[in-house]
Amino acid sequence: MSSDTLAKVPTAPEIPEPADAPRIVPQRRYGQWAAAVAVLVLLGFAVNSVLRNEAFQWDVVAEYFTSDSVLRGLWLTLWLTAVVMVLGFALGTLIAAFRLSANPVLRAVGWGYVWLFRSIPILVQLLLWFNIGALYPQVLGVRTVDLLSPVAVAVVGLTLHEAAFAAEVVRGGILSVDRGQIEAAQALGLSRSRRWWRIVLPQAMRSIVPPAANMLIGTLKGTSIVSVIAVNDLLFSTQLIYHRTYQVIPLLMVATVWYAVVTSLLGVGQYYVEKRYARGTEHAR
């Protein structure tokens, strides 16, 4: 088609806008802005109070923040968190498999485990394991108190507790995968292991990773409870210092700041891991 022909093609006439047509004006949210200003003012007062209150003794906080005893306690806290998460999710995955099994006995065992360890407070569990020698003085001819040190008690108690919650996270992630995709993989002749690693697990991880990351942060903070059984973690290390110096508030702030730093770093890692497993979804775009 020539340019002359294109020039002769009629175009739709423009419809003039009525002179009295209403203008679209964005809604003014005065209440939200007033609330935001009030929050900022209150936040400013709170920060100023914390920074200027001499009772916090920030010079003492700086003095002990990187002391050897505090760093040793921090290292034990990180180690305990990593071990409990690995063992907890390993055991939790097994319990989740029990709960999803077609065998009614395994399903009942899995359900009973989750019910039991979610029902008993973690502090009670730790105290029971710490005093297990009163129930079983010897195991295989060895005294129980020689088998279970305070650190071992902490690992056992926290792992059993963590596994109950990890089992539900893993089970929920597996159930989130569309059953039709598994049936399609079966129709294509994929083996059970290939269906699990190539179909089920990648999609289940999108549902597993966010709560698992929250559990990791919760476990890090929850390890502070082992101080009641004299495990020399971060909190117990600061307690030993302030029992000697009577500087309770600044030493508690040392522990608080370290927990905040580590949980912030874990939060950044959680963001990138979630982003990786969310690739290809609407959320990732």
Protein model, in words:
The radius of gyration is 29 Å and the shape is flat. The protein is 73% helix and 1% strand. The protein contains twelve helices and two strands; from the N terminus they run H-H-H-H-H-H-E-E-H-H-H-H-H-H. Strands 1-2 form a two-stranded antiparallel sheet. Strand 1 and strand 2 form a beta hairpin. It is mainly α and 285 residues long.
Query: How far apart are the termini?
Result: 41 Å
In total, how many beta strands? 2
Lateral arrangement of strands in the main beta sheet = 1-2
Helix fraction by DSSP (H/I, runs of at least 4)? over 70%
Biggest sheet overview: 2 strands, antiparallel
By secondary-structure content and strand pairing, the structural class works out as mainly alpha
Query: What sequence of helices (H) and strands (E) makes up the elements?
Result: HHHHHHEEHHHHHH
Indicate the proportion of strand residues: under 5%
Mean pLDDT: 82
Q: Number of helix segments?
A: 12
- Radius of gyration, in Å, reads 29 Å
Ordered list of secondary-structure elements with their pairings:
Blueprint: H1 3-8, H2 30-52, H3 58-65, H4 68-100, H5 104-119, H6 122-130, E1 138-139, E2 142-143, H7 144-147, H8 150-175, H9 179-187, H10 192-222, H11 234-245, H12 248-277
Antiparallel strand pairs: 1-2
